[in-house]
Amino acid sequence: MFDNLLSPFPFAQAMTSLFIAILFLQSGLDKAANFADNLSWLQTHFSKTFLRNFVQFLLIVLTVAELMAGSLALIGAAQIAFNGTKTIALYGGQVATLAVLLLFFGQRIAKDYAGAASLVPYFALCVAAVVMLSF
């Protein structure tokens, strides 16, 4: 049943997908559960930028992207484990890459350069996942 996970490459693919699932499901669920608090903080964060009037819409977009990335990655990890299929996991990695890019853009616009820099390892992981899941 889990014979696919006995080989190093499928194991790495499944574990990377699980990492992405945990990361984005937790983040997306937190944003959804604490929407008002997140919105308040982000409105302050972007108050001096051209994004100030779009914060609520962008928070919704980001929350949906994170929940999609995490859900696709979780389903994809299960598919890799059960039958070796990687398509859904690949979609999860692609949506996750886009979500990190959105976060990075926002941090740069807000001139939170330390926050933007902290996203670089996540971006690298997501891009690596997309490449790894393409084989």
| Rg over CA atoms | 16 Å
Order of helix and strand elements from N to C terminus: HHHHHH
Any idea what the shape is? elongated
Distance between the termini: 21 Å
How would you sum up the major sheet?
none
Index terms:
elongated; 6 helices; 135 residues; mainly alpha
Walk me through the structure.
About 80% of the residues lie in helices and about 0% in strands. It has helices at about 10-35, 35-45, 55-85, 85-110, 115-120, 120-135. The protein starts with 7 loop residues before the first helix and ends with a helix. The mean pLDDT is about 95.
Structure described in brief:
By secondary structure, the protein is mostly helical. It has helices at residues 8-33, 35-45, 55-83, 87-109, 113-118, 120-133. Helix 1 (8-33) packs across helix 4 (87-109).
